[in-house]
Each structure stands twice: as structure tokens, then as C-alpha cells.
Amino acid sequence: MSERRSLLRAAVNERLAAAAEEIFVLLERTIAEYEEEVCRSKEQNQRNQQLLEALLTRGSGQRRLYSRLFHVWDKLYIDTSKLSSCCV
């Protein structure tokens, strides 16, 4: 009886260790994906900031400025809605 219990304990411990390893692999992969997404978001924010600064310093008419700003806003809204839908 004691030998059976030891074998069962060893089998359970082995399976738990394998499950924990699988969880850590998935966790590392998920963290890497989130880090890549953060990097892409920062790059996009930097491009949008540069675009906004260029628009504001260019001295073009207000109508053109507002048109471009709304275009950027729409693009940002679409990009963030894609992010929120994929993370639900």
C-alpha cells in the first residue's frame, strides 16, 4: 500500500511539475507579446506626436489642421479599438 502511494505521489508530482512548466512557458510568451505591443504603441505615439508638431509648426490654415487632426484621431481610435477587442 505504501509503495502504491509513493508511486501515485511521484506521478502527481511529475504531472504538476510539467503543468507548472507549461504555465511558465505560456506566461513568458504572453509577457513578450505584451512588451512588443507596448513597443509598437510607443513608436506609434512618437510618430503621432511628430505629426502633430509638424502640423502645428507648419503654419497652414486652421481648416487643414483640423482636418489632419481629425484624421489622426480617427486612426488612433481605430487602432485602440482593435487593441481593446483583441484583449477581451
Description:
By secondary structure, the protein is mainly α. The protein has one domain (2-86). 93% of the residues lie in helices and 0% in strands. It has two helices and no strands. It has helices spanning 2-58, 62-86. The longest helix has 57 residues, at 2-58. It is rod-shaped, with a radius of gyration of 26 Å. The two termini are 49 Å apart. The mean pLDDT is 82.
Please render the helix and strand layout as text.
Blueprint: H1 2-58, H2 62-86
Helix pairs in contact: 1-2
Overall geometric form: rod-shaped
Low-confidence stretches: none
Domains (count): 1
What structural class do you assign from the helix and strand content? Answer: mainly alpha
Order of helices and strands: HH
State the total count of DSSP E strands. 0
Helix content: over 70%
Q: Sheet bearing the most strands, described?
A: none
Mean pLDDT: 82
How many distinct helices? 2
How far from one another are the termini?
49 Å
β content, as a range? under 5%
Gyration radius, rounded:
26 Å
In short:
This protein is mainly alpha-helical. It has helices at residues 2-58, 62-86.
